[in-house]
Design brief:
Layout: H1 3-11, H2 16-27, E1 32-36, E2 39-44, E3 47-54, E4 59-63, E5 87-91, H3 94-99, H4 101-116, H5 133-141, H6 143-151, H7 154-165, H8 170-185
Antiparallel strand pairs: 1-2, 2-3, 3-4, 4-5
């Protein structure tokens, strides 16, 4: 047991009982408890397997390679529409955690199997994401922009493509592209 996790749970303004219940289940699996990113994190051979998280309306177990976990009970959910790896299980109270304890443990054990096997999530390449016409036009007009964009990491490229594409109107997509041209030319990601 990690002293920082003890303090995290004791000082939690919300979800402390739920954190204790989740922690109890996780610690029975033999994972190593750590404290990363301000949250309880559980590892196997220094590789992250799952994280306990708290949100406004629920607390959750986030499985870092959730996409590879067998989940016959449907306990795990995608946290967002563009998520490719992590899945989470959300809870509103201790009773829900206790009712789902067997399924939670099964997911944890399968996550351990995935980690021991060295399995990796295959992420979609940036080329698999569509390039909005407004951005494609600017890439064609400015060769330096194309070069700068292609030199960004794949994750930064995906973030821009998703951000530009999520706008419903062409004028909004064009405005987003114009607003971020300098950032791309400077080699910065969307949130850098």
């Amino acid at each position: 047991m990690n002293a920082q996790v003890d303090a995290f749970i004791e000082n939690a303004k919300r979800w402390s009982d739920e954190y204790r219940a989740l922690r109890h289940i996780v610690l029975q699996t033999g994972l190593t408890e750590a404290y990363k990113w301000g949250k309880p994190c559980y590892t196997l051979n220094d590789n992250n397997v799952l994280i306990i998280q708290g949100f406004k309306h629920f607390c959750a177990l986030l499985f870092t390679k959730g996409a590879l976990i067998e989940d016959p009970t449907g306990l795990l959910q995608w946290p967002g529409e563009h998520t490719q790896s992590a899945k989470r299980s959300c809870f509103n109270n201790v009773e829900e955690i206790q009712q789902q304890a067997v399924a939670v443990r099964a997911c944890i054990e399968d996550a351990i199997r995935v980690e021991k096997a060295g399995l990796k999530v295959e992420f979609k390449k940036s080329k698999a994401f569509s390039v909005p016409a407004e951005f494609q036009q600017r890439l064609e007009e400015l060769p330096a922009l194309k070069t700068a964009f292609e030199s960004l990491t794949p994750g930064r490229q995906r973030a821009y493509l998703m951000y530009f594409s999520n706008a419903k109107q062409s004028k909004t997509r064009a405005a987003r592209v114009e607003k971020h041209l300098e950032r791309i030319l400077d080699g910065l990601g969307l949130t850098d």
